[in-house]
Amino acid sequence: MGVKIKIQDVDKNFTARDGTVHQALSKVNLNIFEGEFLCLLGPSGCGKTTLFNLLAGFEQPTNGKILIEGQPVTGPNPRYQTIFQNYGLFPWRSVEENIEYGLEVAGVPREKRKQQVNRYVAMVGLEKFRHSHPRELSGGMQQRVAIARALAVEPEVLFMDEPFGALDAMTRFRMQEEIVRIWHENRQTIVFVTHDIEEAVFLADRIVIMSPHPGRIKNVIAVSMGRPRDRTDYDFIKIRDVIYKEFALSTKKELDYYI
Q1: pLDDT band at 154, cuts 50/70/90?
Q2: Integer Cα distance of 145 and 17 in angstroms
Q3: Which residues lie below 8 Å from residue 3, measured CB to CB, with a gap of 6+?
Q4: What is the pLDDT of residues 5-15, one digit of tens each?
């Protein structure tokens, strides 16, 4: 696999109203490979969402650079779609109209739009709800619409910021299985932000563990298990426990930081 995204010596600073400079990220270096499912994992305040925003082009690094296929990321790009926890659906548009939106903006001909909508409505299992509006759907169904809308424009990279965080546990498990199935079929590069260790182990090819003060990459763990994954499997539990130990050590250091 070739390198799809390269993060080189990235720092990110924010200036408070009183002029105090806060360093959110320090010297972040990472290669993300084409077709990889990569999870950014860490507690609140570790900089994972800041790094996510830099990758998606919503913000720019203070120092260093981010390249996608060798080109600097200077802003959002339709080739790289972003999915957030709050779904971002248009309440006045039906399921199929929401999925069609990005294709309309891109000027895709009507017949091609229809084909794409049909494909992705079926892919996320919402054929019976294609004419429904967001208010008529459960949270998990709304998130499936958001995923289908992003995939319909056939992006090269999918950025996902804790997309299942607001869902109940069972729906979250189903959505994790769903995104793995969709990823396996499409093989886009996915960068997925989460603070849930088991979610990261279930989803990722590699897990990037981040720590705070300032945000930085502490470790990168390859998940060498096959798919589908069983959360009760010995290898799954072993990898999960390795990460728990990493976080236990980080938590102790963080407490020491404040004392």
Answers
A1: confident
A2: 39
A3: 31, 32, 33, 34
A4: 999 999 999 98
